[in-house]
Specification:
The structure holds 2 protein chains of 2 kinds.
Chain A (H helix, E strand, L loop, with lengths): L1 H15 L4 E3 L8 H7 L5 E4 L2 E5 L2 E3 L4 E4 L3 E5 L6 E3 L4 E4 L2 E3 L10 E6 L2 E6 L2 E3 L3 E6 L2 E6 L2 E3 L12 E4 L2 E6 L2 E3 L5 E4 L5 E3 L2 E3 L6 E4 L4 E4 L2 E3 L5 E7 L1 E4 L2 E3 L9 E7 L2 E3 L2 E3 L3 E9 L2 E3 L2 E3 L3 E6 L6 E3 L2 E3 L3 E5 L8 E3 L2 E2 L22 H8 L10 H12 L22
Parallel strand pairs in A: 1-2, 2-5, 3-6, 4-7, 5-8, 6-9, 7-10, 8-11, 9-12, 10-13, 11-14, 12-15, 13-16, 14-17, 15-18, 16-19, 17-20, 18-21, 19-22, 20-23, 21-24, 22-25, 23-26, 24-27, 25-28, 26-29, 27-30, 28-31, 29-32, 30-33, 31-34, 32-35, 33-36, 34-37, 35-38, 36-39
Chain B lengths: L6 H11 L29 E5 L4 E4 L2 H10 L8 E7 L7 E3 L4 E4 L11 E4 L2 H8 L5 E4 H7 L2
Antiparallel strand pairs in B: 1-2, 1-3, 3-4, 5-6, 5-7
The chains are: A mainly beta, B alpha+beta.
Chain lengths: ~400, ~150
């Protein structure tokens, strides 16, 4: 019993001396920079509430830097604030704001170089240039941060979470708004992006480049300049994400360029100019996705091969599928539900008795001459489409769903 | 009155001539790269290719233009009239690639991962390269190196 009490007392004691160093305007240590300088390896720095105007805080040792509520750091002269060059660092509960923009320098609220095991948690970054910028890092956790900038034009914008040559990263529950790219991955491997909300970014909500073996699921990408881009990557899993409201001449819900062996399952594509734009997409799975009210649900151009489209719902899209070539080869469409299907089901097995051709004549015409879109909804076009349906001449042969579903598919 | 009609062909001719192949500024944030389809954003890296027919293609980076030029994906090398890129330090004007010096250095990341940047002054390029890993090329060397 006594032993338990001692442990409890020790626990209480440790709670009290939770911070080794306290930064506050009425203590001896008034700046975070000073605290970081005198702190020993492994110590904790607590930052009391108040406004601190500081920049270029370089961390060369293992530290925990934790802010009280209302602990705000304003970037002095708009320069970068934290530069982490060591392993095992925690930055938590801080508000960092007001950074300047630069062409040459990567000015960021939190920059992490060549580090292992760094946690950036529950921070609010306001009006930053780069929010969090990590280069050559492993085992990072970036969690529960609010990263909101005010980018209005491309020249004064940078990315919210920017990762370059990193491995084993977790990006979870962040809210990223009004940057160039919300979340940017270049040469990043084995990472997980989960439950983030990325909106109103100038270019992409999420941008992958040369990043293999990553998963992202349950994210929401809304009203970004051009949607989400996944480029030059293999083995990507994109599951249960929402791609919503990406409108514009060059905007997509999801842009896939040179992607191999990936899974795009259980996503929602709603009210985008183009749901998925694919170029050189090879051996990918598209299953149980919902495409609703898009201009084009799918637009795949040449050299997309061996993809499977199964159990997807295509509902109320102006065009379900467009392609610029006569055939996109070896792609399988099977058991999808098409709201534009006008066949019948005589044997009542839930599967339409005649195949559905998702590419209509007019979408082929538009792929060749985009201005023809002005004729959309005209009776002439309806007649052409109908004639083509009966006697197919121009639309790609073989591009059809042999077993279209009669009813909307309910995903588990 | 009829005599003055000779002006017409002249006028027509001058209109045709005015279909120039002058470079134009890239519409950042709205145009897509002709090679990789990405929205062009970085002012320091935007590049432009003008064909003999006067068609202009814009790219997000030096590497995208070099890839397309070297691989001849859209048009043959001899159909290309002019290629332009931006000076990394002063990204206001487009400069002919023949007059530029290119640095390939991992310390200066570029939009498509090849780490290429361009400079109109050789001294400036040497200065930038100082203390960094990397090499300097002329345009000709670059097109031979990149496949």
């Amino acid at each position: 019993m006594i032993r338990i009490n001692i442990i409890f007392l020790l626990f209480l004691f440790s709670m009290q001396s939770y911070a080794n160093i306290i930064v506050s305007s009425n203590s001896d240590i008034k700046t975070i920079k000073q605290a970081v300088e005198i702190a020993k390896d492994g110590e904790t720095i607590l930052i009391k509430e108040g406004l601190y105007e500081e920049s270029d805080i370089v961390i060369e040792k293992s530290l925990k830097i934790i802010g009280e509520d209302e602990a705000v750091i304003k970037a002095k002269d708009g320069n970068k604030v934290f530069i982490i060059n060591s392993d095992n660092v925690l930055i938590k509960n801080l508000t960092i704001k007001d950074m300047k923009t630069s062409y040459i320098e990567d000015i960021s609220a939190i920059k992490i170089n060549n580090s292992n095991s760094v946690i950036i948690e529950n921070n609010t970054l306001i009006n930053t240039f780069f929010g969090i910028y990590a280069a050559n890092c492993t085992n990072l956790i970036i969690r529960d941060n609010n990263i909101i900038s005010n980018a209005v034009e491309q020249s004064s914008s940078a990315n919210g979470i920017h990762l370059w040559k990193c491995k084993n990263i977790l990006v979870e529950n962040n809210h990223v708004e009004k940057h160039r790219d919300g979340i940017y991955f270049e040469f990043v491997k084995n990472s997980l992006i989960k439950n983030n909300y990325s909106k109103l970014n100038l270019r992409y909500g999420l941008h992958f480049m040369f990043s293999d073996n990553n998963r992202y699921y349950k994210n929401r990408f809304e009203d970004n300049g051009a949607g989400v881009a996944v480029m030059y990557s293999n083995n990507i899993e994109m599951i249960e994400n929402d791609f919503v409201e990406n409108w514009g001449t060059n905007a997509y819900g999801l842009l896939l360029k040179e992607i191999k062996d990936s899974k795009i399952n259980n996503n929602l594509f709603k009210t985008n100019t183009i749901g998925i734009f694919g170029e050189s997409v090879i051996r990918c799975q598209f299953e149980h996705n919902d495409f609703m009210n898009n201009g084009w649900a799918l637009k795949f151009i040449s050299s997309s091969e061996q993809n499977n489209f199964l159990y997807n719902n295509f509902i109320g899209n102006t065009f379900d599928l467009a392609t610029n070539k006569n055939s996109i080869s070896y792609n399988v469409f099977k058991n999808n539900y098409w709201s534009s299907y006008n066949g019948y089901d005589l044997n009542k097995d839930g599967i339409g008795d005649k195949p559905h051709k998702p590419v209509d004549l007019f979408s082929t015409v538009i792929s060749d001459s985009p201005v023809a879109i002005i004729l959309l909804r005209s009776m002439f076009v309806d007649m052409m489409n109908f004639a083509e349906k009966i006697v197919p001449v121009i639309t790609p042969a073989g591009l059809e769903d042999l077993e279209p579903m009669m009813k909307e598919i309910k995903h588990d | 009155m009829i005599k003055k009609l000779y002006i017409l062909p002249l006028l027509l001719f001058s209109i045709l001539l005015s279909c120039s192949t002058e470079p134009r500024e890239i519409d950042y944030g709205h145009e897509n790269c002709a090679f990789c389809n990405m929205t062009i954003m970085d002012q320091q890296f935007g590049t432009e290719m003008i064909t003999n027919k006067g068609k202009i293609f814009t790219y997000c980076s030096i590497e995208c233009m070099v890839w397309e030029y070297v691989r001849e994906t859209k048009h043959k090398k001899e159909d290309v009239k002019l290629m332009l890129a931006k000076d990394y330090i002063k990204p206001s004007d487009l400069v002919n690639v023949e007059e530029l010096f290119f640095i390939k250095s991992v310390d200066i990341p570029s939009p498509m991962g090849a780490s290429l940047s361009a400079y109109s002054s050789k001294e400036k390029a040497v200065e930038i390269l100082e203390g960094k890993e990397g090499e300097m090329f002329t345009w000709k060397e670059l097109t031979q190196k990149i496949k």
